[in-house]
Every structure is written in C-alpha cells, then in structure tokens.
Give the backbone structure.
Amino acid sequence: MSAADPSWGPREDLDVLDRDIPRVDGAVKATGRAVYTHDVRVPGMLWARLLLCPFPRATVESIDVAPAEALPGVAYAAALKEPGDEVRYSGEDGVLAVVAAETPEQAEDALAAIIADVERAEPVVSPEQAKADGAPIVNRRPGATSNVDRRNESGDEAAVEAAFAGAAAIVERTYEIPVQHHVCLETHGHVVEPIDEDGEVLVHASTQAVSGLPRALAGAFERGGRIRVVTPHMGGGFGSKFGPGREGAVCAQVAEATGRPVHLMLTRADEFAMAGNRSGSKQTLKLGASDDGGLVALRLDAERYGGVGGGALPRPPYIYRVEGEASVMSRIASVHTATDSSRAMRAPGHPQASFAMESAVDELAYELGMDPVDIRVRNLESPVHHRQLERAAEEIGWYDHPHHIEPGTPDETGRAVGIGFGVSVWSPGGRGSTCDVTVHPDGSVVSATATQDLGTGARTYVAAIVAEELGLTVDQVTPRIGDSSLPPSVASGGSVTTGSSAPAIKDAAHRAREALEERVSTVLEAPVGGYVWKGGRVMVRDDPDRSLAWIEVCALLREPLVARGQFQASLYEGNVHGAQAAKVEVDAMTGRVRVVKMVAVQDQGLPLNRLALRSQINGGMIQALSFGLLEQRSFDEQYGYLVSDNLDVYRIAGAQEMPEFVTIIDDEDQRPAVGGMAEAPVIPGHSAIANAIYNACGVRLTRMPFTPANVLEALYGKV
Amino acid sequence: MSENEPPPPETPPISRRSFLRGAGQVAAAGGLLGSASGERPQAESDSSDGVETLSGAIEISLVVNGAPRKVEVEPRTTLLSALRVHLDPPLTGTKLVCDRGSCGACTVLLDGEPAYACLTLAVACRGKQITTVEGFGTPDAMSDVQEAFCSKDAMMCGFCTPGFVVATHAALERRPDADLEELRYELSGNLCRCGTYPHVFEAAQEVQRMRGKDGSGR
C-alpha cells in the first residue's frame, strides 16, 4: 500500500523541523518539577550509601557492620568483601560495605560506624609507579606479567624513517593529557522498588541505556522478576552511564534483602572515585612535511592511561592525510594503574588525538612559514573542512589578525593575543530503533520510543518529527520516552541516538500518515500519497480546496491507530565535519590564559532543532575549553588517596571562563538525512586554544591543562 | 534586610557549640560503638542565657515559598536535606550536586538573598522567607526568568537549571542593568556541565529587555 518511502522532504517545505524549537520539557525543568532519579520518593524508601576503601590496593582484614546496624533508623548493613579479599583498584572494586537507613543523615552515621580494618598495599596510581621495576601487577588481563600492554603496533620503521629523510621540516614533541572526568551533575545511581504482585521490578535509573538496562541488571536480582527501567529525566551521562555499575547491583541486593524501595545514588566523592573517566595519554608524535606543507611521514609512540581499563586513542594520522604508502607508524600501549577504569566519554580518545595532531600540524606550519589555515586545507581531503576553516577564520578575525606565519610577543604589560584552529570529524551511528505513533479518535497523538534524553533535546524531536509529518504543531504531539516498556531504542553512545531514533520516528509518522490517508480517501477521494498535511489540515494535493481539519480526520477513526516505525538507513547520515577557532589572551606575567572568543562551524545533515543543536555545539566547545584550561584528576601517590574528589579541587569551567561564542550551523550542507551531534563539537576546542597560545606568544603548550603553572613553565622553563 | 541587622526575635541564634554537637554525631558514632543503644537521641532545646542549644530531632517551622511548613530535623540537617528529604511532601527542585558549596545547584533565596542550601542549616532558617525554584513559577505560570530559560534554551540536562533560575532572579534583583561581564560575575557561583552558559546569559538579557519594555521590573 506504501505510496512512497519516508523522506525528510525539501527543507523549504518544512514547517516545524530545521527551526528553533523550544524543548518540550523546558517548563518542567525550569520550574524544578522534572523528576530525576535523585528526586524519586517512594513510600517506605530507604537511603543507601556505599563505604569505599580510601586506598586503591588493600587486603581486607575485617569489616564489622554490627555497630552500624545498632544505630537508629538503620534497616540494613552488609559487608561486601570478606576477610582476606583484596581491593585491587580504586573505584568499583573498593566498595567495602553498604548501609541503608530511614534518612540520608542516618545512613551517613551508619557508614561512619562501620569498622573496616584493611591492610594497605602499594598504591600504583601513576604510570611511573606502574612501570617501575618490581611494580605489583595491576593489569587484569589473565596471565599478565607487566602493567604495560602493547597493542596497536603498525607500520614499518625503516620505511617511515625513509619518508622522514625526504621531509623538508620535521617536528617532534611529547604531549601529556591527564585523566579527566565526565562530571555528570546527577551522580550515578538507581532507585529500585521491590517486586510487585505482577512480578515487575521497577527501577528508576539515571542511565543512557533505558532499553538495554533491564538485561544488564537481570543478574543482580536473585529472585528474578520482570525489570522495567524508567528514566524520565537524567542529569547528564557523557558516556559514563551505560551499565548499572556496582552501585546498581548493590541497590538491587539491598532492595531484595529488605523488601523495601532503595535509593542509592553515589555521593560526589564516590562519583569521582568509581564512575569512570576519560583516559589520559602521553603521546610522542613526530611529523614531517614537504616544503609545500604536505604531510609525508608520521611516527607516534603513545601510552594510554585508562586505569584498569585500556583507555582510548584513535590511530594516526587521525583526521589528516599523510602522503605515500607506509609513511605512518604507531605504537600505542596501555599502561595500567590500580585506578578506576576509563569509560566511553564524548568522542572517546579523540580530544587526546586531536591535541597532539593539531599541535604538530600547527607547529609545522610555523616551521615552514605557512599560514596555519593553509596547512590544514592542504592536508584535509574534504572540501567541507576547507570551507568550514575559511568561515571559522573569517568569524574569529584571522584575516585582520596581525601575525599569521610567526607568533606574536607579549606587549609591555605582558599581554599577548593569539588565534588558533582545530578540526573534527565524527561518524554518528544509526541502527535499529523503533517507535510507535498512536493517533486517537479525539485527535490526540502520542509518539513513543524507549529512548532517553541526556539533555540533547531528544524528547523534543520525538514530538516534532511527528508534528512535521502530520501538519501539526509540536504541542499537539505527546512524546513518551525514558521507559523500557516502550518500543526499544538504542543506548546513547557515539552520537547514535538521533541517527537511530529520528528515522524510526519519521518512519512511524509516515506510516501513520499513510494509514490516515486511506481513511481520508473515502471522503476526499484522492489516492494515498495524494495529500498535503499542513497547518492542522489535510488537503488534496491537486485541489487544496478539498480538505479536512485534523479533528475531522481523526473522527474517521473508530479506534486508536498505531503505526510502528523502524530505523531506515535512507533517513540517516553518518558523517559530520567541524572546524573551530579560538582567540586567547595570554598574560605572560601570571601565565593566565583567557579565552576571549570561540567559533564553531559544524555540518550535520538536516538539523532537526536548530536551537538544541546550537546548545549541543556550545556544550562541546565549553567542555573542550574546560578540559583545556582546568581539568585533571589527581591522586596522592604515596598513599593513593584520590585528591580531586569534588568540584572544589576538580574544577570545571564556570560563567567567568566563558568567552564570546559564535556557533554556526553549516547550511551549505543540504544532505537530506539526520545524524547526532554529541561528539564532533567536543573534539578540537582545546587544540585550537593551545594553538592560539602559541600564536599569541610563541610557546607551545604540550601538557594539559593550560594552567598558569604549566604556561609559566612553558614560557620560562621549570622554576 | 541589611547584613548588619540582627535576626528577628523568633530566630534564636544557633551557637557554634550546638552546631558542633549536631555535626559531631558522625565522628562520634565510631566512638560510641559498644554503647549504641538503637534509641533515637532525645530532642533537647535549652534557650537560657539567650543562646539556644539544640540537639536531637526537633520539629521546626519553615516558611517555604510563602507557606509555613512543619519539618522534623536535627541540628546538623542542612536546609537542602530538609527541603529535598524531610519536608512532606518534599521539594526536589533544589538539587544536590557537590554538597560542598562549589556548584550552586542548591541555590535558594533566604529573605531574598541567594544562598547555598547545602551549606545552610535548616534550624538557622526559622523565621526566614525561603524561596526555592518551585516558588518562582509553575509549568503553566512561569516567572519571566523561567520563560526566558525555555525560549533561549538555557538548559540541557536541566540538573543545574533550578540553581541557575534562582541565581538569575537574584542577579537581576541586585543588578537589573547588569552588562554581560557583570552577569558572568553574578552567575559565577553556579556550574553547568552540559555547557548552557551562553544561553543562560541570553536568557538573562532577554529578561532585562522584557522588564525594561513593560516596566514590571524597575
């Protein structure tokens, strides 16, 4: 019966999409009525807390929870390690005990009453400690005899050296990037309700994988039950909230043991200790170019620091092209420490690769006396990047900037101004996702899919796509998301959500429309596919005077019409490009860097919601700025205490660090398909800032973050 | 109320001694292990010599969003916990993020001045007007700041948003004509991870325009 395949249609015909759409849950968020997992209050609910071992490595001698059990209001206390058990690393393996009480204050008292006796072992929190002779093996790979796993070795050394021999300019530096954190403002956790009489276990979860979480949690429940996960709102994930984590398993255990609802959300300190991170790295990158700026040889020796995890780093030459076969070699190792595993974090590995590669390309430009924009254009294949770099250069003021091919110097007050660049690519995923669109005889419409809105605006397009297809306004469609009992969708990782959900929603709306057109054809007598849906009416395409109002169309239904939509590859776009520029002021007296302006130019396929898209791009730039200027995890290496366990020590960018932003959606891109915009804009911002610092005052920052101390050291050497 | 004015008489000052007694329960619990009785500590209140001493759980009255609310707290209970947990029904719009006065997610107004509810003791708020994000508007009747947060997309995940809404109201009270630099300063007590700052500034400026136009603000 299908008259046509679903399509996004010509942009000029769009009434809802490709415009600024205020998010549909704005009002509940702005008035404090949005209920996050943290905010769930169920009658009889207990407040649970975890006791974490402060030492990364230790042997448990004893854990006595009896004193906690004796305290007022304490309903449950249990040791989660036995005497003789080892704590093998800081993080999930350091969970020693759990308590649950009638109030959070009583739970805190109970935690303090537990007597845990542990024998501290050598901490192994830094790569140096992990690589030292005789270091304890903290590598969890079975049979490992070293904390260093060599993997991803590629390229022929002799061939690469030969390629370097023909280079006109060669640069080589070592770049250091600390471990960074996601810092979701809502910490990880769950509220687990006891199994009900229908055998359902309701789990409120702060998760980016609503559809997948029931299966991931199933093993945590000894008594079984049908798990239903709900996440109406969640306070940030950034790649750290896919699985239930140790905290989810323990929450399930306490709920089963007590038969009561249990609220177990990590404290901020727990969150920093056990909820993941972006792996650090140390990259020695050697890069050669011919005298016209073409890259001809590359060698990367890199270490990834992902704790007990492997860490992430894409292979070189990353975004750029290096001429010639066999002109690239890389050795990438994972150095394991006894610290929490890295997790996926917004473009895993890419900001790290970007920093080294963009810095080296930039340095070659200055070596060769080339414009940093020109050398990028020379070595990037996509014409999309070329136009985006030129647009970014124009918007940042590059063409009016006094120094292009050699850096500036501080003026008499110590102030220096510079501009730098970086680019990004990402391949947003798209795969199986489903959606049900239900049209009721009274004219109401529900669009339902089990996706989650991490703050991206997903809930808004779940309604808006249907409104566009049926000629309605956004508020005429009720979006239902964040519930695993709805039609399944994907976990939100790798910018996959929009590319997966939006085609399924579009497909469902399209099917609903065709089914409605069948009914309408009995009245208006045009065939299915012969109608235009606009402004709350359906009109015969060739005779718009023959029309019905929306409410009249729905009155033709005897019962609700349900259309199931599936992911359609034809509606999805899998490649995006971006260019960013940063303008900085460096104070050479204090080492302080102030970013004064950032520009992003980003393509995207069809922008579903331009307002939310600009928010996403801003967010990427701001996180990159924050990584660049402020963020680093720090451990006390002697005892292994996590020093950066709250936002006073682990600093993230605030209002005062904000520059002027110019956020440009690249509308020269007219691809009629959609993709996600989570990762791409977070990739190059800090690289652009580093390059701007060089352009300002001639020092190359090789260690993140660009704190006053690191800038002063780069300027004047170690004091 | 100016900073130098003494608190109203219905709010006896909390002595440092009594504050420490409440806060010390956590540390003391370890020392009381053998004798922990399982009994709820007796509520005590002694207001001789003009200084009120409190310990244990007591019922107090708080004026939240204009309405008196009874709530049972201990001396160590923060205003944030009183609002989010102990009020019945609770008010969960005010968010707990750092619990250490670093992020501003728990910003409320106390007698019109912004305060971090995580660093404020509930018992110290008796007699004060407490305004939370819920007190500024409802989804169907939002304040001008809340409206502007929606129209400018000054929120993403939304977890910092209640704190920013309250802080923006306070900032525009204090400095109705604040320029962008001043807005950045006024809002520097609040952190956002998604990166909504530019849109928060736009929302504040939109409110300034609207108030200037219809005269309701100044």
